[in-house]
Structure formats: structure tokens, C-alpha cells
Amino acid sequence: MTLLMAALLVFAVAACGGSSSSSSSSTAESEAGTEEAGSEEGTAEEGETEEGETEEASSEEGETAEASYPPESTSPNFPNYVEKYGPKGVKPATKPYKVAVLLPATELPAQQSLGQGFEEGAKALNIELTVFNAGGFENVSKQVSQFETAIGENPDAIVVIPTSPVAFNSQVDKAVGDGINVFGALIAPLDPKVTYTLADPLEEDGAKSVKALAEAIGEEGEIMGIFGGAGGAPNTLFVKGAKKELANYPKIEEVYSKNLTNYSPAEAQSAAENGLVSHGDVSGILTNSTSLAPGITNALKGQGKEQLPLTGLGPSDQAEIEELEKGTITIGVTPPFYSVGGLTLEWALAIEEGQKPPAPETALESMVFTTENMKEGVESGALYQALAPNTLE
């Protein structure tokens, strides 16, 4: 705990302070977005300045390092996303530049970090930002409507983290036809007219989670699969990769599988309890989010069972970091939720200035956190590429 909080103080400055080359940005408040927010909670949120969340460097701590966003890892054992995936030589916008960002949800700390990353990136790059929030991956039609609203506001670029990769072809075509560049982030919209996407290879994340679980249980035994966000793109892609990888372990049998509507630990506990009734001898638990771990742990304790190896996407909060350090959670796999917003906005400006992306889509290397490297992940700043510091307070 002491280590984590000390590191938080150091990296909150670096992650939230903004670039020295630009100290301010503007955030656009869309009337359409405001109306949606008023009519349905969480439907659309304007670009928020997040006042009060930026922490100033403490003179008592002697911090002299120049604050910057996106944050970077100082360890060679974790990817440095700025160096590996960012464009070169991008400067803050010197003329009005507007971007609309379409978020699918802000339920989990990682999703909140994603939104905050766009906010911090906009500040650092002097970009006028409007943020829409669909309120859940199940709200595909809502996000379609928000996309159309964003087109009507005529921004320079639209960034979409799609609730469904296949749902926005006509909107992408319309935006591009109107001279608006469209970018994906983490999940690539399946339309060739999308300018560029820094993508999280969710199928690979699922495969990595299975490999780690297989190693933890000696590549044999029964397992349960408990997954959040049923029907959403992250669920579908992660589970697809996990199932494919499971086929490589003939001595491992998934005896129980449950897709939950959201990422509620309470629902995960209920699902685990139901699974344990018929399958009390399971050797491990596979999830697509370590945020489900507390509920699963409660289910195991309730039936007098020891903690079993558990893997998934994460960590997403301080408690999960501690569980990883203790080994209660075997492995957490995560993309750079916090950094990808700033990197995507950098690419938007770079392409505007004539740079060309390396490909229509670049698969981001995920970070893998374990009991052995979690301390290094905190100390090196690698963790803060995924999670905004204030989500860990």
C-alpha cells in the first residue's frame, strides 16, 4: 500500500499535469449532447475539464521532472506506448481543431481512465473536445444517434470506441464524405474509410489469460468461465480468443460458463455460486475482467473453498493491484486505456499535418501484470499508461 500510494504521488503529476508546450485547451459543449444528457442519464457528456482532479507537484516531494501526458513506462519490461506507437514531432494545435469522441461506457475504472485520457490529451494538444457517452456497450442505437449528432457539429475528426464494430458503416461513410477524419480507439470499426485505429487485440488478451491460467493449474483440470458485458464487443472478442486458446489444452475442460450483463461483482458471485453447486472441483476461474474477482472470491469463501487461480483483463483498481501482488489474481492483461486517448489525438493532428500512419490499424501490445512484476509496474509508471492516477485513490 505504501509503495502504491508513493508511486501515485509521483505519477499523478506526470500523468495529469499536461504537456509543457501547451497549458490549456478548450472543451466544446454541444447543445445536442447536452440535450441527450438531460433526457437520458449518461447518454452524452460534453468535454469535461475535470476540475480538481489534476494534482500539482508537491515541493515537499522535490519533484522537478517536467509533467507530461501521455505517461510513459521507464521499464524495458513493459511497452512504452509513446515511443512505440506515437507519431513523431506533434505540436499542439495552433488553429481551432475540434474532435468529437464517442465513448461506449464509463462503468469501470479502466473505461473512466479512457475518457480522462482524451480529456488530458485535448488539454495538452489545445484541441476542442466534445465527449459523448453511450452508457453501455448494449446501447448500440444510442451511439449511432450520437455519431450522427457529432457529424452535424462538423468537427475536424471523430474518434469512436464502437459498441459494435459493424454498426457504423453508414455514419463513417457520411463523416468521411463531409471531410471529417474518423478514428477508432481500442476497437476498430470495420470500415475501410476509417483513417486509423490503435487497437487492443482483445482475442490475444483472451488467449494470454487462458495461457496464464493453464500454467497455474498445470495444464489440466476443470475451470469456470465468468464474463462481463454480454453481447458487447469486448466480451465477444475476448471470449472468442479464449475459447480458441482453450482448444490447445485438451486436459482442461470448461465445465461452466456464464456471460453477465455488466461487470458487477455481485452478479459474478451469484454466477460462481451457481457454478460451484454442480462443479465443486474446479481448479481455476477465467474472466474477462479482474473487477469480477471480489464476487468470485466471496463465492469460494462462502462454500469453504480456497482461493483458486483467476485471470482476466486488469487490474482496474487498487484492491485488484493488491490481489495481484498477493497472488490471489494470477494475471492481469491490459491495454493502455489512459494513454490511448492522447496518442489517438496526436495521430489526428499528425495526419492533419501530413504524416501517414504505418497501417490502417495497429495492434497495441498489451501489458501483462503478475505477482512477480506488479511492483515494477507501479514503480516504473507502466501501470499509469492503463489507469489514470485518480482512479486508484
Structure overview:
With 393 residues, this protein is an alpha/beta fold. It has 2 domains: 2-200 and 335-392, Rossmann fold (3-Layer(aba) Sandwich), CATH 3.40.50.2300; 202-334, Rossmann fold, CATH 3.40.50. The protein is 39% helix and 15% strand. A 6-stranded parallel beta sheet has the order 2-1-3-4-5-11, with helices on both faces. The radius of gyration is 21 Å and the shape is globular. The termini are close together. Mean pLDDT is 86; it is low at 1-67.
Short recap of the structure:
The chain is built from 13 helices and twelve strands. It has 393 residues and is an alpha/beta fold. The chain is globular.
Task: Write the topology of this structure.
Layout: H1 2-16, H2 31-39, H3 81-85, E1 98-103, H4 109-125, E2 128-133, H5 140-152, E3 157-160, H6 169-177, E4 181-186, E5 196-199, H7 202-216, E6 221-227, H8 233-246, E7 252-259, H9 265-278, E8 284-287, H10 293-302, E9 310-313, H11 318-326, E10 331-334, H12 337-352, E11 361-363, E12 367-370, H13 374-379
Parallel strand pairs: 1-2, 1-3, 3-4, 4-5, 5-11, 6-7, 6-8, 8-9, 9-10
Antiparallel strand pairs: 10-12
Helix pairs in contact: 4-12, 7-8, 9-10
